[in-house]
Amino acid sequence: MGYISGKINKPYVVHAIRICLTYERWNDELNEIRRLSKLNDYPRTYVDILISKLINKHLIEVDTKTMTAKADNLLKKRLIVDMPYIQQSSRILSQKLQRFTKTVKPNVDLKINLRPSKSVGALFRNKDAIPKLLQSDLVI
Q1: Model confidence at 120, in pLDDT bands (50, 70, 90)?
Q2: What is the tens place of the pLDDT at every residue in 26-52?
Q3: Is 66 left (phi over 0), alpha (psi -120 to 50) or beta?
């Protein structure tokens, strides 16, 4: 008797892999799939082979995704730029810099910190300096 591998059990196994967050829940779902397959006269070995193939495929996909993510993080250089915040123009400039960096150097992770600019009062002295000859010799 020929069984259609993709029609009956495969969607259930894929669904169980995607929705279960713990191994206990995953095991319960797979046992339920085995029970339903037995009720529909599927051989136990066929169901177990199908489940193991799909789980292996899922684990390989997860492993390759994590490996590529780790490799990307290791290869990327982090660059931090401090820029003064001047309303909308600084936002536009930071977006353009990030786009430019992605096209020219895709292995650079650019982070732009928009800082408030110095006030005008911080650029000038509060009081004029008194010349030394005009200062009194009084010590308080």
Answers
A1: confident
A2: 888 888 888 888 888 888 888 888 888
A3: alpha
- Residue range(s) defining the domain that contains residue 91: 77-119
Do residues 83 and 44 share a domain? Answer: no
Q: Are residues 90 and 64 in the same domain?
A: no
Rounded distance between C-alpha atoms, residue 67 and residue 103, angstroms: 24
- How many CB atoms are closer than 10 A to CB 16? 21
Separation between Cα atoms, residue 59 and residue 62, nearest integer Å: 5
Q: How far apart are CA 120 and CA 114, in angstroms?
A: 18
